[in-house]
Design brief:
By secondary structure, the protein is of the alpha+beta class. Helix content is about 45%, strand content about 15%.
Length: about 300
C-alpha cells in the first residue's frame, strides 16, 4: 500500500528537481541560458501536476554540455550512459540518481535537455536537420503557442516570445506559432496532437487552424503507424474521447487513423467518452456500432500496430 507521504513525494518530485536545478545554476555560466520549455510550463500555469522536465539551453551544443556539467557537478556522471547523448539532434537525457533535495529522493527524475535550435524537414521524414538557433526560432517551431512558453530556470521568469502563449492559455485556444500549413507540413503528427489537446483540455481550435488540419490530412500517411497509435491511445483516454473521434471524422483525418470512424454516427462517437477509462473498453466501444465489428476492428487495429492481446 502506498503511504500518503510517498504519494505526496511522487506528486512533487519534479517540482523539487526544478528547485534543485535552479539553485545549481545560479551564479554560474548557465544562469542566463537555461529554460524550462513545453508542457511542464503549460501545466504549471494551469495549476496541474507538471511532469517531464524539458530544458532548452541558448548556447551552441548547450544541451549536451549542460547535461555533462550537471552530472559531473552532482557526481553521477558516467560516460556513455549518464548523460545519454544524441549528438545528431543536439539533445541529451540525464538522471538525478543519488541526489536528494529538501528530503526528497530525486533518483527517478529524468531530465531532457537540448540546445535552442532551428529545424529543417525533408518531405516524408520526421527527423529534421537541426542547427543552433535563438530562443524565438526555437519556440516558433513548436506545435502550439500554449506549448511555446519558457520559464527561466534560475529565476522562474515566464517568457512568451510568440506574444500569444499566455493569452491562448488563458482563453483555452489552440493555435500554431507560425502559419499552420508550415507547422503541419514540417511535422504532420502535430495535427493529431492538436486533436488530442483539444479533447484533453476541452480547448477550441480556430477555424483557420481547423482548415489547415483538414487541408494537410493526407500528410499523416507519412507518419509511422506506431506514432499514430500513441496519439490515438492518448485521445481515447481523455475525458472528451468522443470529441476527439468526432474531430477525426470532421477533419477527414479518419482514413489515416481508423477509416471506419467515417461510418459511425456522431452520437455513437460521443458515447465513447462515457465508457470506463480503459483503453480496451474504449476501443471496443468505438468499433461496436459497425457491422462485422470484430472483423473490422481486427483489421484496423493490426494496421495501426496494436498488439494481439489488445485486439
Amino acid at each position: 500500500m502506498i503511504s500518503l507521504k510517498n504519494l505526496l513525494l511522487e506528486i512533487t518530485k519534479e517540482n523539487v528537481a526544478e528547485k534543485f536545478l535552479s539553485n545549481l545554476v545560479r551564479g554560474t555560466e548557465w544562469e542566463d541560458h537555461v529554460f524550462i520549455a513545453g508542457g511542464y510550463v503549460r501545466d504549471q500555469l494551469l495549476g496541474s501536476d507538471a511532469k517531464d522536465i524539458d530544458l532548452v539551453v541558448s548556447l551552441p551544443d548547450g544541451g549536451i554540455k549542460f547535461a555533462e556539467w550537471v552530472t559531473k557537478k552532482v557526481g553521477n556522471y558516467k560516460a556513455g550512459s549518464n548523460p545519454c547523448i544524441f549528438p545528431k539532434f543536439g539533445t541529451a537525457k540525464f538522471t538525478l540518481k543519488g541526489v536528494t533535495h529538501d528530503g526528497v529522493d530525486l533518483g527517478e527524475v529524468d531530465v531532457e535537455v537540448v540546445m535552442t535550435r532551428s529545424e529543417k524537414y525533408t518531405t516524408g521524414s520526421r527527423k529534421p536537420d537541426v542547427a543552433f538557433g535563438d530562443l524565438k526560432t526555437d519556440v516558433e517551431r513548436r506545435d502550439a503557442t500554449v506549448n511555446s512558453l519558457l520559464k527561466k530556470l534560475s529565476s522562474g521568469e515566464i517568457l512568451d516570445l510568440t506574444g500569444k502563449g499566455k493569452e491562448d492559455l488563458r482563453n483555452g485556444v489552440l493555435r500554431t506559432p507560425l502559419d499552420p500549413d508550415e507547422t503541419f507540413r514540417d511535422d504532420p503528427l502535430r495535427i493529431l496532437r492538436m486533436v488530442r489537446m483539444s479533447a484533453k483540455y476541452n480547448w477550441t481550435i480556430p477555424m483557420n487552424i481547423l482548415r489547415s488540419m483538414r487541408r494537410n490530412a493526407a500528410k499523416l500517411g507519412e507518419i509511422s503507424r506506431e506514432r499514430v497509435k500513441d496519439e490515438v491511445d492518448k485521445m481515447l483516454l481523455t475525458n472528451n474521447a468522443g470529441k476527439a473521434m468526432r474531430l477525426l471524422k470532421a477533419l477527414k483525418l479518419a482514413p489515416f487513423v481508423f477509416p471506419s470512424i467515417d461510418k459511425i454516427s456522431d452520437a455513437d462517437l460521443v458515447g465513447i467518452g462515457k465508457r470506463p477509462k480503459d483503453l480496451s473498453i474504449r476501443l471496443a466501444a468505438l468499433f461496436y456500432p459497425l457491422q462485422n465489428a470484430g472483423a473490422v476492428a481486427e483489421v484496423e487495429l493490426r494496421n495501426t500496430k496494436y498488439d494481439t492481446d489488445t485486439i
